[in-house]
Amino acid sequence: MIFETQRLRIRLLTLNDLDSFHKMQSNPKVMQYADGEVNDFIGHQKELLNLIDKYQITNNDFWIYAIDHKIDEVFVGTLALVKDNADDEIGYRFLEDYWNKGYGLEVCKGALAYCKKIGMKQLVAYCADENKASIKILEKLNFKVVERFNTAINQLTETKYKIHL
Fold this sequence. Notes:
- The protein is α+β, with helices and mostly antiparallel strands and 165 residues long.
- It contains five helices and eight strands.
- It has a five-stranded antiparallel sheet with strand order 1-2-3-4-5, with helices on both faces. It has a three-stranded antiparallel sheet with strand order 6-8-7.
- Strand 4 (75-84) and strand 5 form a beta hairpin.
- The chain is globular and about 40 Å long.
- The model has no long low-confidence stretch (mean pLDDT 93).
């Protein structure tokens, strides 16, 4: 376990997560503000194996964790803590069944506390301007706008946010 919140547990991904991971990654609504690409089962299996393999890399700067519901240990999404050039970036993704339950805010609060505990000084987040739910979370947590730009991948306007821990 990496850390936990009142309702959620953040842990390393395993192959047991494949079915839920695939369901999440193949939902166009989940992926619309990410890279927008929906893959097949084999593609998601390779992606999950690649993420799991990264746990073994010394000085790994690309951590994607599973988010479980604490009581029943059901996979509900992923949390990303990755190095983005000089910045440490936070990101999250949830299965659509778990939207609008306050999990995004809860996991981000827990992640901020965890990142501060392990010595990070600041975090950035990138958010599509159309993703109102995530903007609301970032604003509640006092992330500040750094810059706005257009993405080449999905042709959306995104905003870079930053918070000092």
